[in-house]
Structure formats: structure tokens, C-alpha cells
Amino acid sequence: MSERPLPTIYPETQFYWDGAKEGKLLLNACIPCGDKTFFPPRPFCPTCGSRDVTVTQASGKGRLYSYIINHLPAPGYEPPFTVAVVMLDEGVKMVANILECPADPKALSLDMPLEVTFEKRGDLSIPQFKPAGGAA
To answer: Nearest Cα to 116, choosing from 84, 70, 80?
Structure first.
């Protein structure tokens, strides 16, 4: 199996990847919007356009919002694998893989509780999700 691809890191997203290396899931929050969080990381609020944004640590907890089970080959991935949309407790949706859980509809139920886990890829840690409590 080939290596999984690495993300491109830009100055605007460096904080996110630095946090992941430390086991933290960091989000941006817009101060004029009442500290409303948003993702993906960027230097301005997608709602109001303000650049008055800050960085906040997410709880790392969320729920399975949607998913697909991919049966096609992809670089670095052994099919089947799960690609999910996770709704974080902070109200932000993220796309990630579900780890430590079979890629099987019998093991995946919408709204199931998830928690962040970090997958090492080279020098990076990639935020992914697994069933909360480690049970699938």
C-alpha cells in the first residue's frame, strides 16, 4: 500500500497543524459573530467576512452526520474505508475518516458519538475520528 497523501500547509493553517501535533483540535472563532466557530481554518469569518478571528480548542467530541463507505482504490487507503462528515459539539462540520470501526453500515449509525484521534503521517498528525469510548 502506498503512503497516504499529506495535506498542503499554508501560513493561515499552520496553527491548526501545530495544534494537531500536540493532540489538540483547534478551530477559528469569529469575535464579532459572538465567538462562532468555523472550519476549515482561514483568516476571516465565512459569515460576516471579519478578520477579527481567534483560535479556540474544540472538545474533540462530535456525532456522525453522514458517511460513505469507499470501495474504490485510493492512494494510501485499503478499501473499504469510511469517509465521514462529523458534526462537532461546537456546531462545525468536518470531513474525516472513521478509524477503529469497521467500514460497515452495521457498525456505523447516524448520530453515533465520535471523538477525535490523531493519525500520524510523517511529521504530521491528522485529525480523524473514532467511536467515542473506543467501542464500535
So the answer is: 84
Segment (H or E) for 61? strand 61-70
Strand order in the sheet with 36-38: 36-38, 26-30, 53-57
What is the per-residue burial (b if ≥16 Cβ within 10 Å, else e) of 96-113?
Answer: bbbbebebeeeebeeebe
Global pTM value:
0.92
Please report, for the chain, how many H helices and E strands are present, in that order.
1, 8
Calculate mean pLDDT across residues 43-67. 97
Summarised one tens digit per residue, pLDDT across range 89-133 is 999 999 999 999 999 999 999 999 999 999 999 999 999 999 998
Place of cell 452495521: 106
How far apart (Å, rounded) are the C-alpha atoms in residues 13 and 68?
Answer: 27
Tell me the three state secondary structure of residue 2.
coil
DSSP alpha helix (H) spans, 10-93: 14-21
CB atoms within 10 A of CB 129: 27
